[in-house]
Design brief:
The complex is a heterodimer of chains A (352) and B (363).
Chain A (H helix, E strand, L loop, with lengths): L1 H8 L12 H40 L6 H4 L12 H32 L4 H14 L3 H23 L4 E4 L3 E5 L9 H25 L3 H9 L4 H30 L2 H6 L15 H6 L15 H9 L8 H33 L3
Helix pairs in contact in A: 1-2, 2-13, 4-7, 4-9, 4-12, 5-7, 6-7, 7-9, 8-9, 9-13, 12-13
Chain B lengths: L7 H43 E5 L4 H11 L8 E7 L1 H17 L3 E5 L4 H9 L5 E4 L5 H9 L4 E15 L8 E3 H8 L8 H4 L9 E4 L5 H11 L9 E3 L3 H10 L3 E6 H5 L6 E2 L1 E3 L12 H6 L6 E9 L6 H11 L3 H6 L7 H19 L1
Parallel strand pairs in B: 2-3, 2-4, 6-11, 7-8, 7-9
Antiparallel strand pairs in B: 4-12, 5-9, 5-10, 5-12
The chains are: A mainly alpha (352), B alpha/beta (363).
C-alpha cells in the first residue's frame, strides 16, 4: 500500500481508492505532497541565494574585470590592481600540493583498502581519517607553521652561501644558488597537502570499495599477482572516483586562505614565485622553476581577502575583490570540468 | 658529466646511473605512459639545468673558477626587502613600493600585513628588514630587540587623523568633548536625540554614520573613543564608502559621522567639522587642520605612523634606497592613500636621523 501512495505522491491526478479509509489516504497524500514541496523549496532557496551572490559579484566586478586584471600586479590604485601574483602563486601551490598529496593519498587508500589486515590499529586509523577531514584548515596552518617552517629554514642553512653539496663524500653536487625564503611555496604546499590528504584518502577508499570484488577474484584466479591486480584492474576501475575526489580536494586547496595566512604568505605581492610572470618564461628560462618552491608567494584567496577588507574612501576595491572572486571561480570551474572529462573518458575506457 | 681524474667510486656511480637510465625509462613509460615519460624527461632536464655533478677529487682552483658562474641565483639575482606590520601603514607602504619597484626594477618588496605587534615580533625574530607600526615601539619590544642584537631606526613617515563631522545646519555645536563622543558612540549607548547627550542641545534625533569594522579608521576611532577596539553602538549606519557617510551626514539635520581627515580636507564644503576637546572643557577644542594634525595638537584623534628599519639591514643598498625613497619621492603617495604627509622641516629631521643611522652603521 505504501508503495502505491509513494508512486501517487508526485502525480496530480486524483485516484479513488476502494479501500475503506478514503479520507485518511487523502490526508497522507497531502502530507506527502507537502513534503515534496518542502524539499523543492529547500533546493530552490539555496539556488536563489547562489544566484543572488553570483549576480552581485558580477555586478560589482563590472568595470574592473578586464584582461589586464590577469596580467597586473597589486596596486593601491584599484584601476591598475591585478591578480597576476595570486594566479601564479595558486598555480604553483596547487601543482606542488598535488605532487605531494596524490601519491601519498592514493597510496594510503590502496594500502588501507586492498592490503592492510583488519587490525585494531587499522580501525583506529580509518576512524581518525574521518576526524582529520573535519579539522578546521587553520589548525593545519598552525601545524605547518610549527613543523614545516623550521624544516625549510634548516634547508636555508644548508644552501646558504655554499651551493656545492658533498653527497656522502662520493661526489659534489653543484647547485644553482637558491634563495630560500620563509613562507615559501614549499611550506604552503606541504601544509595544504595535510589539509586535503584526509579527503583524498577517504574519496579514494570509497572509489576502491566500489570496484566489485569479483574483478579482484577473477584477476587473482587468472594468476595475476596482487600488485598486477591492483595496478591493472582495481586502480583503472576506480580511477574516475579517485580523480573526482582528488580534483575536488585540489579545488578546496585553491580556495583556502586561512592556513596560508598562518604560515605567513605575502599580503601585498608584486612578484611571482621564481620571477616567472608569463608561461613563455617557463620555456625561455626553465632554471627559474627551481627557485619556485623556495620563493615567497601569495594565493588568490589571500589577495581576495585583502582586497575585500581594503579600507578605501570610495569603496573602489570592492570591484577588484569581485573580479578576483570571478577569476578564482573560473579557475575552479575549469578544474572541475577537467574532472568531468577525466571521469567520462576513464569510464568509457573501462571494459571487462 | 666530467669523468675527472676521479675516484673509482664516483665512476661506479655514474656507470650505475647510465645503465640504470634505460631500465628506469622503460619502467617509467610502463607506469606513466609515453606522455608521462616525456613530462618526466622534461622535468629532469630542468633539474639538470640547475645542477652539475663533479668528482670529489676535482682541483680546488677549478671549483673556485666555476663558482662565479654558479653564484647566479636561480631567480635571476633579484633583491628583496622583507616588510611586515600594521595594516594602516601597509597602505602607504604598498603605494610607495609600487612606485619604488618601477624605479628599481631588480628589487622586490615582500609585504605582509599582520598588525603592529606581530610586525615587531617578526623583527625581534630577525626575519624582516622593516616593521610597519601605527604606534611608537613599546619599551618591552625595544628591550627584546636589544636582547636579540637588533637595533631599530625609527622613521616617522606620515600622520593619520580622524575628523568628526555634523550637518551644516547644526548650529548648536562647534566643539565636542571626548566624553560626549563616548556617550554617543559607546556600545549599548541609549541616546536617541541630541538632547539626550546634553540638555542644552535641541530635541533633534541623532543619525550616526561611519566606516564599517573592516576599516582601520573604525578600529582607531573605537579604540580611542570607546576605549576598546571594535566596540561601538549598534545604532549607526556603517559603510565602507566615505561618500555614503558624508552624504548621510549632509542629508540629516541631526547627522554625525567620522572618517579619515584626508577625506575631510578634500570635501570641506559638504559638512561641518567639529573641534575636539580632550578635556571636559569646551574651550580646549582643537580644530583638525593639516597643521594641528602635524603638530599633534589635535588630540586624541591624530597619530603618527612609523616604519622601523633594522639598522644592520641599512647596510644593504636596496633597504637604504627604499627607506630614502619612502621619505622623499614616496611622500607624494601618503596623501593619495588618505593620510597627512610630514612637513618639510620634520621630513628633513627624519632624513637626518636616517643618515645618522647609516653613518653609524658604517662605523
Amino acid at each position: 500500500m505504501s508503495a502505491t501512495v509513494g508512486e501517487l505522491a508526485g502525480s496530480v491526478v486524483p485516484v479513488s481508492f476502494t479501500l475503506g479509509a478514503d479520507g485518511q489516504i487523502r490526508q497522507r497524500l497531502r502530507l506527502s505532497r507537502g513534503f515534496m514541496w518542502l524539499c523543492r523549496l529547500a533546493t530552490y532557496a539555496s539556488l536563489l541565494v547562489l544566484a543572488v551572490l553570483l549576480l552581485s559579484i558580477v555586478w560589482n566586478s563590472v568595470g574592473r574585470l578586464r584582461w589586464d586584471f590577469l596580467s597586473s600586479h597589486y596596486s593601491m590604485q584599484p584601476d591598475r590592481c591585478g591578480i597576476l601574483a595570486g594566479l601564479w602563486g595558486t598555480f604553483w601551490l596547487v601543482l606542488l600540493t598535488a605532487a605531494f598529496s596524490i601519491p601519498v593519498g592514493v597510496g594510503s587508500a590502496v594500502y588501507l583498502e586492498e592490503l592492510a589486515k583488519d587490525t585494531w590499529l587499522m580501525r583506529v586509523i580509518r576512524l581518525n581519517l574521518s576526524n582529520l577531514a573535519g579539522v578546521p584548515s587553520i589548525v593545519y596552518g598552525i601545524l605547518g607553521l610549527t613543523a614545516f617552517r623550521p624544516l625549510v629554514i634548516q634547508l636555508q642553512s644548508v644552501f646558504d652561501g655554499r651551493h656545492v653539496v658533498n653527497v656522502l663524500g662520493l661526489f659534489r653536487l653543484r647547485l644553482l644558488k637558491l634563495d630560500i625564503y620563509d613562507g615559501s611555496v614549499l611550506i604552503g604546499a606541504m601544509t595544504m597537502s595535510l589539509v586535503i590528504l584526509p579527503t583524498v584518502i577517504i574519496a579514494s577508499q570509497e572509489a576502491l570499495r566500489a570496484v566489485p570484488s569479483t574483478i579482484r577474484v577473477a584477476s587473482l584466479a587468472l594468476g595475476a599477482t596482487r600488485w598486477q591486480t591492483i595496478w591493472r584492474q582495481v586502480l583503472p576501475a576506480s580511477l574516475p572516483g579517485i580523480a573526482t575526489g582528488v580534483i575536488l580536494s585540489i579545488s578546496r586547496a585553491m580556495g583556502e586562505a586561512a592556513p596560508l595566512m598562518m604560515i605567513g604568505v605575502l599580503t601585498v605581492a608584486s612578484m611571482c614565485p621564481g620571477g616567472i610572470e608569463s608561461p613563455g618564461q617557463l620555456l625561455t628560462e626553465p632554471g627559474r622553476v627551481l627557485a619556485v618552491p623556495f620563493d615567497q608567494f601569495t594565493a588568490m584567496p589571500v589577495e581576495i581577502y585583502d582586497w575585500s577588507k581594503q579600507p578605501d574612501p570610495q569603496d573602489r576595491f570592492t570591484g577588484v575583490a569581485a573580479s578576483g572572486i570571478l577569476v578564482l571561480l573560473a579557475v575552479l570551474l575549469t578544474v572541475n570540468a577537467a574532472a568531468m572529462i577525466v571521469r567520462y573518458r576513464a569510464g568509457r575506457q573501462l571494459r571487462w | 658529466m666530467p669523468a675527472c681524474s676521479g675516484g673509482f667510486r664516483f665512476v661506479g656511480i655514474v656507470e650505475f646511473l647510465q645503465e640504470g637510465q634505460g631500465w628506469l625509462m622503460s619502467v617509467a613509460s610502463r607506469v606513466v605512459g609515453n606522455w608521462g615519460t616525456a613530462v618526466l624527461l622534461a622535468f629532469s632536464a630542468f633539474l639538470s639545468a640547475g645542477c652539475s655533478v663533479e668528482s670529489v677529487d676535482a682541483p680546488a682552483a677549478k671549483t673556485g673558477g666555476e663558482t662565479a658562474g654558479a653564484t647566479e641565483s636561480a631567480a635571476g639575482g633579484e633583491k628583496r626587502i622583507q616588510v611586515d606590520g600594521s595594516s594602516t601603514v601597509a597602505k602607504v607602504a604598498a603605494a610607495v613600493q609600487e612606485e619604488f619597484t618601477k624605479k628599481f626594477a631588480d628589487t622586490k618588496v615582500a609585504l605582509k600585513v599582520t598588525g603592529t605587534g606581530t610586525g615587531f615580533k617578526e623583527m625581534i625574530a630577525g626575519r624582516i628588514d622593516i616593521a610597519n607600526a601605527s604606534r611608537p615601539v613599546k619599551d618591552s619590544e625595544k628591550a627584546d630587540c636589544e636582547k636579540a642584537g637588533i637595533e631599530l631606526v625609527e622613521l616617522k613617515i606620515a600622520l593619520d587623523g580622524l575628523t568628526v563631522c555634523v550637518n551644516r545646519e547644526n548650529d548648536w555645536l562647534d566643539t565636542i568633548t571626548v566624553a560626549q563622543l563616548k556617550k554617543i558612540w559607546a556600545p549599548g549607548s541609549t541616546v536617541k536625540t541630541w538632547k539626550d547627550v546634553d540638555p542644552a542641545w535641541p530635541d533633534v534625533p541623532l543619525a550616526l554614520f561611519g566606516p564599517g569594522e573592516e576599516s582601520g579608521t573604525f578600529d582607531y576611532f573605537t579604540e580611542v573613543i570607546n576605549g576598546k577596539e571594535d566596540q561601538i553602538t549598534e545604532n549607526y549606519s556603517a559603510s565602507a564608502d566615505d561618500n555614503v557617510t558624508i552624504t548621510g551626514i549632509a542629508g540629516e539635520k541631526g547627522g554625525m559621522g567620522f572618517f579619515g581627515c584626508a577625506y575631510y580636507f578634500s570635501n570641506r564644503d559638504k559638512v561641518k567639522v567639529l573641534k575636539i576637546s580632550a578635556t571636559d572643557s569646551v574651550a580646549d577644542g582643537i580644530e583638525p587642520t593639516v597643521e594641528t594634525v602635524r603638530s599633534g595638537a589635535y588630540k586624541p584623534l591624530s597619530r603618527p605612523l612609523f616604519i622601523y628599519v633594522k639598522k644592520s639591514s641599512l647596510a644593504k643598498p636596496e633597504v637604504l634606497d627604499f627607506a630614502k625613497y619612502f621619505l622623499n619621492e614616496g611622500q607624494s603617495q601618503v596623501s593619495t592613500v588618505g593620510y597627512v604627509p610630514l612637513e618639510e622641516a620634520e621630513l628633513a629631521t627624519v632624513n637626518a636621523a636616517l643618515d645618522a643611522a647609516v653613518s653609524g652603521a658604517g662605523k
